[in-house]
Amino acid sequence: MGTTTYPRVGGHPAFDLVDTVHWRLDDTRAIDTLADFDAVLDWCAEIDLIDRGAVASTAPDVAAAEHAAIIALREAVYEAVFEDSPDAAALIAREHIEALSRSSLERDDGRWRWHPPADPTGPRTAIAFLAHDLLTSDLRSARRCGDEACGWVYLDTSPRHNRIWCTAAGCGNRNRVKRHHARSRT
After folding, report:
1. Alpha carbons 9 and 39: distance in angstroms, whole number
2. Could you give the CA distance from residue 99 to residue 116 in angstroms, rounded to a whole number?
3. Is the pTM of the predicted complex or chain greater than 0.70?
4. Is 128 exposed, middle or buried (0-12, 13-18, 19+ CB in 10 A)?
5. With contact defined as beta carbons under 8 Å apart, do 13 and 47 qualify?
6. pLDDT of 113-159, one tens digit each?
């Protein structure tokens, strides 16, 4: 794919998945860019998580069920990391165990790797691996954007670990301008 359609500011693909909800903290502006299973396939293909062509055409009821499960997994990542939800962590653990049972362990480039199935469960399987990887990593640098409505999340890898905004050009600039205008009016 030549152009990036989905945000990649999270520092981990599981956070990039969470960031497919724009304006998460403002119900009046929230936009879910993964509106259906086809959008999930596009996202997975864009980040090279699956080969979109490998997932055969999917019956509408199966696609709807897989989409709902993936959205639940995405929300579980957010809730486990930022709300310390044990239920969300348990969902990620269950999905990871199920993902292992659906996958095959294959030697690839000198190491063994889990490969998701080339069927409609493939995207959820791959996402479950990502969610588990994130959840079992060091989360001390996990942050939520400082904008009151944004809700995008990221790993703060800045040298001083003082990153506030999802992007300096987006939320950072908007909030700096907002503060400047507030000071100018007084």
Report:
1. 19
2. 7
3. yes
4. buried
5. yes
6. 999 999 999 999 999 999 999 999 999 999 999 999 999 999 999 99
